[in-house]
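writing this on my phone so excuse typos. first protein, seq and then structure
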Amino acid sequence: MKHLGGEHPTQAFSHNYLTRGTKNVFMKTKVHLTVLTAAMFLFTGNASGASWPSEVTVVSPAPGTSVHSLLTLMGNLIVEHTPIERWDVQPLGGPELWLPMMKEGKCHFANHSVPGMILAYQGRWVYEKIRATYVRTVAAGHSEMFMFWTTADKQIGSISDLKGKRIFVKYKTNPLFLEMAKNQLASAGLNLSDLKSVLPFSNLSVATKALLDGIADAFLFPVVREAVEEINTLKGECQFIPLTLGQSRYVVERMGGFYVENIRSHDPRFGNLKPVPNAICYQNAMFCSHTLDPDLVHGVAKTIFDHSAELRDAQPLASFWSLNYRPVALGVPYHEGAIRYFREKGLWTSKAQMYQERIISKQSAN
């Protein structure tokens, strides 16, 4: 899985805390790691023609990332509480790769960022040839911050202070980073020409090293706890350049799938030492094809949320996959099986239904 339309934040951040592997398979009788082979795509049941296929394939980020770990733990719950016998967690690349596979029935579920999937649903950027109208949301979970990182010695206390600074904002071929940078700067009356340097970079480890070595004054990236903790250790504190509430609202009004959240200190998702008010955030969510059997989607959503407490002590992100957090994120339309579950819980509102109908009709009109 790619993140926000590009490589997942932790995918290139290879330190000792990352584990190695390609695929996690959960079975009724045992848990084991196997090598990814072509045979993994041969399902024993057709998801669109059977309520409960014996094997389900879930696309994830690279092994060692937080989301991959979360999905493997969810596999334990799915196998224990549903008729599904195998829950295969596979790192198969980004939506431009797995969306066509999903359409062909070669994978059942995938996790990705809500803003990234909005672009895929709209057929924008790298998704122009896919026109992924068949994608539906199953459930939304933990948030991630998308902020400028810096350190105290740079003396950058606001977005305005970025004027004349050297900043990493061009992440590979992912235009969303540049769009986020432009909007955060514009919220303070700045543009890219006000920076001393607008630097390209290929991954999080490159940006982190440049910040630590003094090559860059700041960089823009979704917040990854492990990288934050390394900066905390080496520099005393990794700081996130704050925005006022007005500035944050300016940004989210112009970028689909983002919202404002106040982040407490020592949040287990981010490793931040101090609170981060008015943070620009987006959610990670699980997606599937609209042709997937409603009973299967309902059963997966029900298992994840009805048993989420069983994972809280095992994975920091698990507590945010909760009915008490934000399980309904209005971005890509929800699958009818998921809607049925959230209606049962009293969480599918008239606002959600109106949004659902409007976005589907808009896509159909195009």
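second protein below, same order as before
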Amino acid sequence: MPKPTDDELELALRTAAEMRENNDDPHKLAKCLLSHNFRIKNLEEVLSIADRYFNMGMSERERTNLIRAIEKVKNLESYTSQTEQERFGLE
């Protein structure tokens, strides 16, 4: 399936936001689209930082940026899913 154009995505997101504001989302399609768009933007940031990390000789600075971006996504996932992040005893 081809990726939507920027204009198509903007229209779909605007329509989804209107549907949610008007409480007119019986099948939760608008909720899913808005949520997935939010998550994808954050995951694309992780991808971009990971790409820089590997292509810049895996510098310590880029490693730190990558860890922070991953933690940000984990925190957002916990917040949006209303679940607690799994923790290990070493953190």
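The chain has one domain: 6-81. thats all i got for now
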